[in-house]
Amino acid sequence: MTMVYYRSTMWDYTKKVKELFLKPKNVGEIENPDAVGEVGSMICGDALRLTLKIDKETNKIRDAKFQTFGCASAIASSSALTELIKGKTLDEALKITNQDIAKYLGGLPKEKMHCSVMGTEALEDAIVNFRGEKKPEAEEKIVCECFEVSEEKIRKVAIENHLTTVEEITNYTKAGGGCGSCIPVIEAILRDIWFVKPITEKPTRPKKLTNLQKIALIQDVIEKEIRPRLQADGGDIELIDIEGNKVVIGLRGMCVGCLMGDVTVKGIEDKLKELVSEDITVEVG
Amino acid sequence: MNTIYLDNNATTKIAPEAFDEMIPYLTDLYGNPSSMHTFGGSLHNKIEEARERVAALIGAELDEIIFTSCGTESDNTALMSAVESYPQKRHIITTRVEHPAVFNFAKHLARKGFRVTFIPVDSFGRLDMDAFSKALDDDVVVVSVMYANNESGVIFPIEEIGEILKERKIIFHTDAVQAVGKLPIDVKKLPVDMLSLSGHKIHAPKGIGALYLRRGTRFYPYIIGGHQENGRRAGTENIASIIGLGKACELAAKNIKKEVAYVSALRDKLEKRLMELCPDVRVNGDRENRLPNTTNMSFEYVEGEAILLRSNEYGICASSGSACTSGSLEPSRVLRAMGVPFTAIHGSIRFSLSRYNTEEEIDTVIEIMPKIIKQLRELSPFGKEKIKK
């Protein structure tokens, strides 16, 4: 799992960030707003609520106010956003990118770029709501469960900011910064966007396995796919028994008593389902 | 603007008395204590004098104190020594809330093939003793449990654990970096085999620590080279810092009772007033059983980095367990292990005091902090309706 080590201090922020954090502009909530945009949650660590007053004839944003739960750069980014969009038409406002917010602030530390992304997301949310174009949520495919980041968002942010590494994606969207289990998916998305190399084809599965073939394949997948990943995190796996489609395993090392124990077992089961048979179930012995 | 330093679990100011004693050994008296000539060799006595002072603070014998470069080195040495000394045993027990010096070293050993059990804590940060008892088996090579937690301040039942392990003849190490100098510790009565302490947490300089090693405990050095420290820790002695540590320990031993009363009174005042003045605040950790200088408070609906950076404008220094300050995108491992809700972890602030704090400083914090919390809550989309109630 990649760890992103950083520690922001007041020293890493520009004068403009500091200024807009200590004395933010356009704080609050517009009464009877024409549009409301909301992103983030208290659990994720940052959230932004944007309220807009829109001139219905000219489609211009007459007023914008924000409320933000988050760190200094989240507050400054929100304030910057409201400054940038006031007086603009909705179409002009939609052209504002997270880069524009960062630029307005004189730059953001790279691990804080997600704060600028949060700004543009709230704006889009508000305008989509205003225009009544809200998409059903079911369409979203969540890639990062820890921070609830969708594939769509990762693709959009990656393309707009020309991001090519997982670390950059984490800096800009937070995806992959929690348990890290979605990192392979992010890698696949990045490969897909930038055509670095074609997404590796899944090994083709024989149609019907004999019991012996199945046991051999399970052992092979555990040895080649699962064990190296667990060992990288300080854990290990022991294959205890295979009864039909039930695979009994033991977790060793860091996996024992690990907070992510259940997730690990689920991950192993998914891998075996993918590479051996849909009917496989995994139990801890 | 004056600095109001309430981050003493991170590091402390060097005691002026300790600094004064160090100066000659940073300037004129630069000899190597291993030399044959008097200029160097005579410095050996100063090291032994410091060793006596360190030993006296925790009730140890002279030959039970090994000087190291820091608390982390002491912790790493203790674990490594145990696993090197008993190569047939492969199980290590520690806790989910250890300092990274133990936690990450245990993970490192897990990668090398050791089985590691991380004992959980309850919502008050207290160790799950049932889980601890269940984890014990004949394969255990060392148990490492911190004396007191750096984030919550919660004190662990070291004596109780030590008694159990003594009976089973299992090596017991405690990381007492946060406890030494803040709580009376007497290794004559405390059943531990190894104990780590750090200089810069007790008003000595950074870059010096010590490991207590009970007589008769098998030992294997971690830093290998020359004969220093009786062959137990190689490397030319950091004389000035050793002398600084000695003096800091002497000061701590002399004043511990008075200081505990003084510091805990200030801490209690700060905590009580902030709880009265700010709605929706919680204290994280067992308030009945924690370090006298520490309080970990969560201010709901606001984020820790924002609190710290606004406090910074007034010279107030503290710490937070929020994601933005933790060094990763995930908030404090310790508070998560305690089951503190994420929403509360993001707004957690640790105040840790020392003997150098004054009542005036605490009053200033009591005046400023509620204003900052109020301002940030007005900024927060979650603050408004909750505060109104």
- The total count of helices of chain A amounts to 10
Q: From the alpha carbons, calculate the radius of gyration of chain A and give it in angstroms.
A: 23 Å
Overall pLDDT metric of chain A: 84
Helix content of chain B: 40-55%
Counted by DSSP, the helix tally of chain B is: 15
H/E element order of chain B: EHHHEHEHEHEHEEEHHEEHEEHHHEHH
* Average pLDDT score of chain B: 95
What ranges of chain B have pLDDT less than 50 throughout 5 or more consecutive residues? Answer: none
Strand arrangement within the widest β-sheet of chain A reads 1-2-3
Distance between the termini of chain B: 37 Å
Name the largest protein-protein interface in this structure.
A-B, 46 and 45 residues
Account of the protein in words:
The complex is a heterodimer of chains A (285) and B (389). With 285 residues, chain A is an alpha+beta fold. Helix content of chain A is 42%, strand content 19%. In chain A, strand 1 and strand 2 form a beta hairpin. In chain A, helix 1 packs across helix 2 (72-85) and helix 9 crosses helix 10. Residues 1-6 of chain A have low confidence and may be disordered. By secondary structure, chain B is of the alpha/beta class. Chain B is built from 15 helices and 13 strands. Chain B has helices at residues 16-26, 38-41, 43-58, 71-85, 100-111, 129-135, 158-167, 228-231, 239-277, 304-312, 323-326, 333-337, 342-346, 359-379, 383-388; strands at 4-5, 65-68, 91-95, 115-119, 140-144, 171-175, 194-198, 209-213, 281-283, 294-299, 316-317, 319-320, 348-352. In chain B, the strands form 3 sheets. In chain B, strands 2-8-7-6-5-3-4 form a 7-stranded mixed beta sheet, sandwiched between helices. In chain B, strands 9-10-13-12 form a 4-stranded antiparallel beta sheet. In chain B, helix 5 (100-111) links the parallel strand 3 (91-95) and strand 4. In chain B, helix 1 (16-26) runs antiparallel to helix 9. The chains are: A alpha+beta (285), B alpha/beta (389). At the A-B interface, strand 2, strand 3 and helix 2 of A face helix 5, strand 4, helix 10, helix 11 and helix 13 of B.
